[in-house]
C-alpha cells in the first residue's frame, strides 16, 4: 500500500484534509480510539499484511507505515526505516 493511500485513510478517519506523507497521526488529531479505526481500515485494504496498535504508535506517519507494510510483504520484520 502506498504512503499516499495511507495518508488518505488518515484523512478519512480523522476528518482532515490534505494529510501529507510525513504527518504524525497523533499530532494531527489521532487518538488510540481513532487508531483502532485506522488499523481496521488498513488491514482490510492491505489484505495479507496485518498491522497492530504498536505499529501505529511506533510508525506514526503514512510513509513509515507504508515501509512497515512493504517490509512485511517481503517477509521480514522492519528494524529501522522511516519514522
Automatic annotation (TrEMBL):
PROSITE patterns: CARRIER (PS50075). Pfam families: PP-binding (PF00550). SUPFAM superfamilies: ACP-like. InterPro entries: ACP-like_sf, PP-bd_ACP. Residues 1-73 form the Carrier domain. Gene3D superfamilies: ACP-like. This is Acyl carrier protein. It comes from Actinospica durhamensis. The lineage of its organism: Bacteria, Bacillati, Actinomycetota, Actinomycetes, Catenulisporales.
Amino acid at each position: 500500500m502506498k504512503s499516499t493511500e495511507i495518508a488518505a485513510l488518515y484523512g478519512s478517519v480523522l476528518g482532515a484534509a490534505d494529510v501529507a506523507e510525513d504527518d504524525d497521526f497523533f499530532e494531527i488529531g489521532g487518538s488510540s480510539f481513532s487508531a483502532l479505526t485506522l488499523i481496521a481500515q488498513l488491514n482490510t485494504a492491505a489484505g495479507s499484511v496485518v498491522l497492530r496498535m504498536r505499529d501505529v504508535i511506533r510508525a506514526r506517519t503514512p510513509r513509515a507505515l507504508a515501509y512497515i507494510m512493504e517490509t512485511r510483504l517481503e517477509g521480514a520484520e522492519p528494524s529501522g526505516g522511516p519514522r
